[in-house]
Amino acid sequence: MSDKPVEAAAAGMSPALKGALVLGIGLIIFNPGSTSGRSSTVFRVIGGLLVAIAALLFMILKTRIPAFPALIIAAVITGSLGGMKSEMMIASVTRGFGGTLGNIGIVIGFGVMMGSLLQMSGASKRMAISFINLLGKGREELALVMIGLIVSMAVFCDSAFIVLVPLVKAISRSTGKSVVGLGATLAAGLVISHSMIPPAVGPFGVVSQFNMPIGRFMLWSMVVAVPVAIAGFLYTRRLGNAIFLIPTEDGSGFTRERPVSAKESVQQEDLCRAK
């Protein structure tokens, strides 16, 4: 059997994934707790979990396997390498998935429906334009990070980013600010909100699993999210200055030349007439 597929798969992994994979396999093969039954099981489970995480990230980031089957495969890998019997492993995966779906499935379903309605009706884009008009010219980055924080509570962050990218390009073209900085600012707000603040699906799942008071969780998530958003806002402004790109007029590409504003155009015409 040729080793080329294995070598190709390993070549597509980042150093972090390779490290997790090697460490996990090492814990399974060279078990440090082999002299003690309980320690042996713990190290084997940890090793299986590391291998499963590396496999999960590889499947999601480097292949076209959807997230749902990738999660199931990762769960099977964890159980198999952790020493579970096949019957127990199948029952555990089924029970875990069923319990999670029973707790938050309805909320996730309604959240997805609400996000789809916001996306298809154009409400997300209208909200973004209103924020920019409210904060005024020169504060586009602040408006975009606030838009990201609010929109991503109801809409999946990747879908929201795709919907709002044309708006980011239009702002970049009209203001002369780098599309890289503006896009990164929007992405920061979207990811922070989607990862920390209910009723986004992930944070709400954490609330349900650990039976936490949702009001207190939202309060603390905002306490953490706001400083992180400010840090992201400051960093992405510097990023925009370092990587300066502006969409072309036809939208087919990007240019490093800053577009001439109407005021600058009038000034140039006055200079030409004076000469």
From TrEMBL:
Pfam families, per database record: GntP_permease (PF02447)
CC terms in the record's Gene Ontology section: plasma membrane
Region annotated Disordered, chain positions: 254-275
InterPro entries, per the entry: Glcn_transporter (IPR003474)
Molecular function GO terms recorded: gluconate transmembrane transporter activity
Keywords tagged on the record: Membrane, Transmembrane, Transmembrane helix
Signal peptide start-end: none
TM regions (residue ranges): 12-30, 42-61, 67-84, 96-122, 142-167, 179-197, 217-235
Designated name of the protein: 5-keto-D-gluconate transporter
Organism: Raoultella planticola (Klebsiella planticola)
Lineage: Bacteria, Pseudomonadati, Pseudomonadota, Gammaproteobacteria, Enterobacterales
